[in-house]
Amino acid sequence: MSKTKLEYKTFRRYFQNEFKERSSRFICFGIPVKSKDEAILEIDKIKSRYFGAKHYVYAFSLCDGYRKFCGDGEPRGSAGEPVAKIIKSYELKNALVVIVRYFGGTLLGIGGVVKAYTRGAQMAVDGCGLKILRLCIICNTKFDYSFLKKFSNVLSFFKAKILSVVYSECVKSNFCCYKLDFDKLEEKLFESSSGNFNFSISGEDYFEV
User: Fold this and answer.
1) Beta-strand (E) ranges in the chain?
2) Smallest Cα–Cα separation from 148: which of 209, 190, 193?
């Protein structure tokens, strides 16, 4: 996954639901993904699980800018594109929507098909919920118990996130901070510790902070 974006909006959770439109059954999925391969794997799982459906429509958008949609035999522009438009309208990244259709024998017309897939995509977005992930710097540190309260206060002020903490002969902590706030957080920690605060940077990743 590309680490160039400072933040992106994505699905909070996996979601599945369904509805019927004039005898056709539409099964909707919203799935957080991190790569093209993961998206294709999830699509293949759904195709295998719902073998025998008439259409497997999907769209996904990734952080690296890659996007794809597929109408899977529905009239051109009536299925994959409406799903992709919903994803784009929310500016979602690393998000996959799949809609499975079991044809019920009644034609919906192009307008009806567009309406059904738009409804399914919106249902997936609403059901998943949304969150913003920010590119964070991950740090490791250890310090004396006397600095614990100040350390916690500084992290709280900058909305940094403690990933793990171990209380032994000293406090050992693994934490992350939004990249744009990191220099100020570092400065404040040194100031609060009279220059005695030590840490090491272990990497970068996206977190909800």
Assistant:
1) 7-11, 15-21, 24-32, 55-61, 67-70, 95-102, 130-143, 161-167, 171-178, 199-207
2) 193
Residue 43 near residue 125, CB atoms below 8 Å: no
Question: How many angstroms separate the CA atoms of 62 and 112, rounded?
Answer: 29
135-207 belongs to which CATH class? Answer: alpha beta
Q: What is the residue extent of each domain of the chain?
A: 7-128, 135-207
pLDDT (tens digit, 0 to 9) for every residue of the chain, 209 residues total? Answer: 444 689 999 999 999 999 999 999 999 999 999 999 999 999 999 999 999 999 999 999 999 999 999 999 999 999 999 999 999 999 999 999 999 999 988 889 999 999 999 999 999 999 999 999 999 999 999 999 999 999 999 999 999 999 999 999 999 999 999 999 999 999 999 999 988 888 999 999 999 98
User: What does the block give as tokens for 18?
Assistant: 């369904």
Structure tokens at 99: 């809609």
Judge contact between 8 and 63, C-beta under 8 A: yes
Query: 161 near 138, Cβ under 8 Å?
Result: no
- Contact assessment for residue 26 and residue 19, using Cβ atoms and an 8 Å cutoff: yes
- Whether residue 86 contacts residue 122, with contact meaning beta carbons closer than 8 Å, is answered with yes
Tell me how far apart the alpha carbons of residues 54 and 104 are, in angstroms, rounded to a whole number.
10
Q: Which amino acid is at 125?
A: V
Q: Which two tokens stand for residue 29?
A: 């999925």
Is CATH 3.40.1280.10 the classification given to domain 7-128? no
